[in-house]
Amino acid sequence: MALFLITSVCDEGVYENNFKVVEAESRTDIAQDMLDNPYAWEHFLRSTAVWWDLTYYEYKYGEPIGWSAEDLLERIDATHVDGDSEFQVRIYEIKEIEKMSPRKKD
Question: What average pLDDT does range 75-81 have in this prediction?
Fold first, then answer.
């Protein structure tokens, strides 16, 4: 399993509660979880154009949106920052973790 950094960013940058690290097989698996459990990801998705489609479409039309995980990833990758009204969401694989050397005590 790989580690992934998921961010939700507005024009003011990243806050401590707007990112998390997830262990998963792939970005596609994370997107599938978002499709299966959108309310578990609400904090990250609510301020995006994707949120309406994931939550209100089924309510309004009585059927699921019908997206695949790949479809959702395309839409996530197309999110963008528009002030503090629309957030950009990204899912990045963490490919390397750097370890800092212990600081020498004087």
Answer: 94
Distance between CA atoms of residues 59 and 72, nearest Å:
18
Cα end-to-end span (Å), the chain: 40
With a CB cutoff of 8 Å and minimum separation 6, the contacts of 2 are: 23, 24, 25, 26, 93, 94
Confidence at residue 66, expressed as pLDDT on a 0 to 100 scale: 87
19 by Cβ neighbours in 10 Å (0-12 / 13-18 / 19+) ranks as middle
What's the gap between Cα 51 and its chain centre?
Answer: 11
What does the alpha-carbon distance between residue 47 and residue 41 come to, in Å, rounded to a whole number? 11
Q: Among residues 72, 96, 91, 98, which one has the least CA distance to residue 24?
A: 91
Our measurement of the distance from residue 54's CA atom to the centroid of its chain's CA atoms, rounded to an integer in Å, reads: 13
CB 88 within 8 A of CB 8: yes
**pTM more than 0.70:** yes
Structure token pair of residue 46: 């609510």
Using a pLDDT cut of 90, give the percent of the chain over it. 57
